[in-house]
Amino acid sequence: MKQLSEKILYQVITPRPAQSHKGTFGRVLIIGGTAEFGGAVIMNAMAAVYAGAGLVTVATDTANFTALHSHLPEAMVVDFNQDLTTLIQNNDVILIGSGLGDRLDILQATFRAVFPKQILIVDGSALTLLAENHINLPHARLVLTPHQMEWQRITGISIAQQAFEAFNVLGRDRLKQMPIVVLKQHHTQIYTSKDIYELPIGGPYQATGGMGDTLAGIIAGFAAQFFLASLSDVVLAAVYSHSAIADELAKTQYIVLPTQISQQLPKFMKHYAVTKP
Ligand SMILES: NC(=O)C1=CN([C@@H]2O[C@H](COP(=O)(O)OP(=O)(O)OC[C@H]3O[C@@H](n4cnc5c(N)ncnc54)[C@H](OP(=O)(O)O)[C@@H]3O)[C@@H](O)[C@H]2O)[C@@H](O)CC1
Ligand SMILES: Nc1ncnc2c1ncn2[C@@H]1O[C@H](COP(=O)(O)OP(=O)(O)O)[C@@H](O)[C@H]1O
Ligand SMILES: [Mg+2]
């Protein structure tokens, strides 16, 4: 297993070309957030916007519209009960699942609409729905972001067995697709088609609801704009950034809030874009 290091940030986070506009930095569609779990998509969207996605749209329960806009006027909103097919096809990156609750219908419609060239990040309730309903993943550039219980539900690999990376590789093979898997825990592991990486940073100050929703949003924001890097490098850089910011905040804070990580992203990214290792 390779140790992930700060080096990945210098590779992926690059200065923006002057000849550009918001479309250059990608369109992200976030699908999730039942009325109960609206906070999850607010945190997805804050992370994606603060990470630099050009345009972010959130398809969610209408009950979440006002709260979302009061936190993030930069994001657009649509009702997730409408037909999302055209919207899905007009975005570069789709993030589905944070706070999606039991909306299997929305998950299935999304899987039917997505194109193979699109980046599809599957998080939270979407992973649990996948496991409970034995649905196949669609053809897309897939990133799964399970915590250990979500991974156990999908693959049947117990959390104790997950300590042996070979089991996780086998579990991924059984999905019939080869998604990038971000297996979240203390010292998260990332399974790419070539290698397995371990995140050596991060800590218990990150154990707060919404911390994974924020990570999924950062991955989406990075994937939308850093299209010159490989998707695996983009995911590695997002995972590293999420915990590096948390570590920095934890020098003076007992706990770190997910939204505080998002707020630090523009400053953090500036540093890596303009300095060399
Ligand atoms: N503000 C909002 O709107 C928020 C909305 N959210 C949304 O809620 C949805 C449900 O997601 P969820 O993760 O909260 O619940 P679930 O999938 O049942 O997993 C928890 C179970 O797994 C177990 N467990 C074992 N190992 C673990 C590990 N390493 N990491 C984590 N858990 C681990 C754990 O064990 P225990 O804690 O009991 O010891 C427990 O039994 C999802 O869509 C999410 O996006 C949340 O983000 C919160 C903020
Ligand atoms: N003790 C810990 N040490 C390091 N990272 C942690 C710790 N506890 C939680 N995290 C991180 O916080 C995030 C939690 O994700 P998740 O459980 O999906 O949260 P949520 O669904 O509430 O947003 C993951 O990135 C995980 O690695
Ligand atoms: Mg989660």
TrEMBL record:
Reaction(s) catalysed (UniProt annotation): (6S)-NADPHX + ADP = AMP + phosphate + NADPH + H(+); (6S)-NADHX + ADP = AMP + phosphate + NADH + H(+)
Residue sites binding (6S)-NADPHX per the record: 40, 99, 147, 213
Cofactor: Mg(2+)
One BP annotation, GO: nicotinamide nucleotide metabolic process
Keywords, comma-separated and alphabetical: ATP-binding, Kinase, Lyase, NAD, NADP, Nucleotide-binding, Transferase
EC number(s) per entry: 4.2.1.136
InterPro entries reported in the protein's UniProt record: Carbohydrate_kinase_pred_CS, CARKD, Ribokinase-like
Family indicated by similarity: Belongs to the NnrD/CARKD family.
Function text: Catalyzes the dehydration of the S-form of NAD(P)HX at the expense of ADP, which is converted to AMP. Together with NAD(P)HX epimerase, which catalyzes the epimerization of the S- and R-forms, the enzyme allows the repair of both epimers of NAD(P)HX, a damaged form of NAD(P)H that is a result of enzymatic or heat-dependent hydration.
Protein name per its UniProtKB record: ADP-dependent (S)-NAD(P)H-hydrate dehydratase
Organism (species): Leuconostoc citreum (strain KM20)
